[in-house]
Specification:
By secondary structure, the chain is an all-alpha fold. Helices cover 84% and strands 0% of the residues. The protein has a single domain, classed as 23S rRNA-intervening sequence (de novo design (two linked rop proteins), Up-down Bundle), CATH 1.20.1440.60. It starts with 8 loop residues before the first helix and ends with a helix. The model has no long low-confidence stretch (mean pLDDT 94).
Amino acid sequence: MAKTFESLRVWHDARRLCTDVYALVRSKHVGRDLGLADQLRRSAVSVMSNIAEGFERGGRAEFTRFLIIAKGSLAELRSQLYVAEDTAYASAALASELRQQSVVLSRRIEALINRIKSRQSSS
């Protein structure tokens, strides 16, 4: 098991996604819609923050719970990216790329959850 949350691949993937979302929000179109911009930022930050917080809580059950919350934030982010695309704040290509990053990260988090649960059952 990792010694710090910074050594987790899923945290680094979440950090990269967060950076990409912030770049989108800095664009002139999304930046004018303060509500959507705020929601996009909050969702992206929530993913990496929940991975970190859950890890630092020290227990497998707590970590799993926070990973599930992070997956929920990824779903929220994907939904918000559809809004950005549908309102032409983001190009279809960019919104699709960010959604794909979210899907891949969600799968990786799910795999981590499954590894944690399998270790719990074998303990």
